[in-house]
Design brief:
Largest sheet: none
Strand content: under 5%
Order of helices and strands: HHHHHHHHHH
Structural class: mainly alpha
Helix content: over 70%
């Protein structure tokens, strides 16, 4: 335990003191780059979009993708802010005095996890020999429950929940637990309970709410 404590202290003293503003900008740039590559090498090669391009009718879709690019930093900031707030409330309920800024920085760092499935999705369709339709791209999410079923045979109301329940999300929960544990310098089991009772509980609640509203 003493060795673990020393490693924790060293981690926060040396590595964790990164420039949060620069890190956020780089994070947004990486997401934008992925979306641009997806638009250029996957979406543009879909037969239906090629026909629209030839007819000069791609303006609406270009506008849609343009708005998607603009919304990237706002969406990432909102997701990080909300997650950090849920964890902060969870820490407060268990009597852990952790500053919101510390949690925000850790959640932002944890966001790197969700870049990996985006890259996997990008290369999956670039290297695929099949000619996918747009819905194939929308429905695909690496290592998710959606990959275990035929999405065309599943009610659309379950598409998002099945994609949201994936290996990367579970790993994200684990990384959040590590963050609470390191920042709080308290017990591991309490850190697990904090994440489960705050972020994970609201995540599952949101999935259930989505299914109910979609009906």
């Amino acid at each position: 335990m003493e060795q673990l404590k020393n490693y924790r202290d060293q981690f926060f003293e040396e590595w964790y003191q990164f420039d949060s503003k620069l890190f956020f900008i780089v994070l947004c740039i990486v997401y934008l780059l992925i979306f641009l590559l997806k638009r250029s090498f996957i979406i543009a090669d879909i037969a239906a979009f090629e026909i629209l391009q030839e007819r000069g009718e791609m303006l609406l879709f270009d506008l849609f993708f343009g708005l998607q690019y603009i919304s990237v930093p706002f969406f990432i900031a909102w997701r990080i802010t909300l997650t950090a707030f849920l964890l902060w409330v969870g820490c407060f309920m268990f009597g852990y005095r952790i500053t919101y800024n510390q949690l925000w920085r850790w959640v932002m760092f944890s966001e790197l996890i969700f870049i990996l499935p985006e890259f996997i999705k990008l290369f999956w369709f670039i290297l695929s020999s099949d000619d996918p339709v747009y819905q194939d791209i929308v429905a695909f999410y690496p290592l998710s429950l959606m990959n275990l079923v035929d999405y065309t045979a599943v009610d659309p109301m379950y598409h998002y929940p099945l994609k949201a329940l994936n290996i990367f999300e579970l790993f994200y929960w684990f990384v959040l637990m590590i963050g609470v544990f390191y920042i709080s310098k308290k017990k591991w089991n309490i850190s697990v309970l904090i994440v489960l009772s705050s972020y994970v509980f609201l995540f599952i609640l949101w999935i259930g709410y989505y299914i109910i509203v979609y009906r």
